[in-house]
Design brief:
The structure is a single chain. By secondary structure, the protein is α/β, with parallel strands linked by helices. The chain has helices at residues 54-79, 93-102, 116-121, 126-133, 158-171, 190-201, 221-224, 233-237, 249-264, 294-301, 305-315, 321-343, 363-379, and strands at 17-18, 21-22, 33-34, 108-110, 178-183, 206-212, 215-216, 219-220, 240-245, 270-275. Mean pLDDT is 94; it is low at 1-10. Bound molecules: thiamine diphosphate and magnesium ion. Thiamine diphosphate binds next to β7.
Length: 380
């Protein structure tokens, strides 16, 4: 199969005729990429309706700034032993904020571990997220986003669950959509392929947002798959697939809002690949400088999604240095308050480790739970 003369190793060039055998093209596909605000904050084409109102753009900008400040604080808390692990969204704020802003409250978010920006906009509080990363399961028992799924650490295992949630919505004839966010690495897993296949076969109201940050921990995107785009994986499942500039909050919001609307009215699933870059470490347990260069990182800062929207707002006369300072002060205060509330929350009792997995605890674990209560009382 592989052609040793071919530098694309292993890729066969499609031919219409091979040694006298005639083949007919039976299907062709295209993958489209959308960018509405380019790297220099210039509009490409025309902006969608929502983006013509500066107030909407400022609220997206605020959400991105808040996400970045929260991230910074969470990493600092981890470094000082006040949080477990944390996975920063640095560089991907536009994608995550756009996911949260395009969804309706009644839609269901099934996130992985990096989507703080989406979760905040869908009703999860900063204090809840800090509790979770501090090892307290109560943080995933959201007060507002009651039906959103907890953070999914096992890669791609929530993709079939998203199809299941969407099936329930379809059977109940509810005009709601399941939104499953997952990484580029997750698209290499069987769970992902099974989920998109089912979504296509049953025309489910689900949108898969592939947050392509170019890395699966230390494995670069180029070594994960030979596919030219990740969006084209949708083609095999018979669902719509497209790519969007994940550092362009307007483009992600716009394309996702269209996909959500389509799914809501029975138009079926969509896969959106949001192209971005993970500018931070994979998690606080990682050191990315061991596997990528400073030059590569420096180049990516040029594409910073927050700077892009900032420059656009300034250019339009909708933003000033004074407003920037006020926003920073307000968001810092919000983050600090959430940290205070988190640190003031009494720790959960030891037996709580048994309380969030089963609806009814199996008897074998019930006795262990009792033992944990006894031991906890002794220590107290
Ligand atoms: C089933 C499973 N296998 C392996 C891991 C270890 N692991 C944690 S994160 C990660 C990489 C995921 O990369 P990607 O999907 O691109 O998401 P990103 O972290 O880049 O946002 C892996 C392999 C895991 N969490 N779950
Ligand atoms: Mg990744």
């Amino acid at each position: 199969m592989s052609n040793s003369d071919d530098s694309t190793m292993g890729r066969q060039k499609p031919t219409a005729e091979t040694k006298g055998t005639v083949s007919t093209c039976v299907a062709t596909f295209e993958i489209h990429h959308t960018q509405l605000l380019d790297h220099d904050a210039k509009v490409k084409g025309s902006l969608p309706e929502f983006a013509r109102d500066p107030a909407n753009l400022i609220s997206l900008y605020r959400a991105m700034v808040l996400t970045r400040l929260f991230d910074k604080k969470a990493v600092a808390l981890q470094r000082t032993g006040q949080l477990g692990t944390y996975s920063p969204a640095l560089g991907q704020e536009a994608t995550f904020v756009a996911v949260g802003s395009a969804m309706r409250p009644e839609d269901v978010l099934l996130p992985t571990y990096r989507e703080s920006g989406a979760m905040f906009l869908h009703g999860v509080s900063m204090q809840e997220l800090l509790l979770y990363w501090g090892g307290d399961e109560r943080g995933m028992d959201y007060a507002v986003a009651r039906e959103d799924f907890p953070i999914c650490i096992p890669i791609a295992t929530h993709a079939p669950q998203a199809a299941g949630v969407a099936l329930a919505m379809k059977l109940r004839r509810e005009p709601r959509v399941a939104v499953c966010t997952l990484g580029d690495g997750a698209t290499s897993k069987g769970d992902f392929y099974e989920a998109i296949n089912l979504a296509g076969a049953w025309q489910l109201p689900v949108v898969f947002v592939v947050c392509n940050n170019q890395w699966a921990i230390s494995l670069p995107r180029s070594e994960q798959t030979c596919a030219q785009t990740l969006a084209q994986k949708a083609i095999a499942a018979g669902i719509d697939g497209e790519q969007v500039d994940g550092n362009d909050v307007i483009a992600v919001h716009h394309r996702l809002a269209l996909a959500l609307e389509k799914a809501r009215v029975g138009g079926g699933p969509t896969l959106i690949e949001a192209l971005s870059y993970r500018m931070g470490d994979h998690t606080t347990a990682d050191d990315a400088s061991r596997y990528r260069t400073q030059e590569e990182l420096k180049e990516q800062w040029r594409l910073d999604p927050i700077k892009r929207l900032h420059d656009f707002l300034v250019k339009n006369g909708d933003w000033t240095e004074q407003k920037e300072q006020a926003l920073n002060a307000e968001c810092t205060q919000e983050v600090e308050q959430a940290v205070k509330d988190y640190l003031a929350t009494p720790p959960p009792p030891p037996e709580s480790m048994f309380d969030y997995l089963y609806e009814k605890l199996p008897t074998s674990l019930a006795s262990q739970r009792e033992a944990a209560i006894r031991r906890g009382a002794k220590h107290a």
